[in-house]
Specification:
The structure is a single chain. By secondary structure, the protein is an alpha+beta fold. The protein has one domain. It is built from 4 helices and 5 strands. Strands 4-3-2-1-5 form a 5-stranded antiparallel sheet, with no helix packed on it. A hairpin with a 2-residue loop joins strand 1 and strand 2. The relative contact order is 0.16.
């Protein structure tokens, strides 16, 4: 009987650990990109002036932050937006925190030469 209980317990632990691995699904543009950002990306994708632009998503302070960055620009941090599309302005106090504590970088979109 003890052998059955141990085996059953082991199987439950294995099953639960496998379930946890599937929680972090890969980023899906259609499902995971906010509507306001899709509109912005659509407008950038048809305009050559956005050549070199990339859009990233980070987790920062337990929120998704969207970063639109032009690598040709001399600006270190490009435009930052919250989940609702509100622009975030970093201060001397928040900039180091953002740089040090942002995590889970995901490239959402980048300009592709046509």
């Amino acid at each position: 009987m003890l052998k059955i209980i141990i085996t059953f317990s082991f199987l439950i632990i294995v099953f639960l650990s496998c379930q946890n691995e599937n929680i972090n699904e890969p980023y899906n543009y259609e499902r995971d990109t906010p509507a306001w950002l899709k509109v912005k990306i659509d407008s950038m994708s048809i305009n050559d002036k956005y050549s070199g632009v990339r859009v990233y998503r980070y987790d920062w302070n337990e929120k998704h932050i969207y970063h639109i960055h032009d690598f040709r620009s001399s600006v270190v941090i490009g435009d930052l937006f919250d989940q609702n599309g509100n622009e975030i302005t970093l201060t001397d106090a928040t900039l180091p925190d953002f740089v040090e504590n942002k995590k889970n970088e995901i490239l959402i979109w980048e300009w592709k030469n046509k």
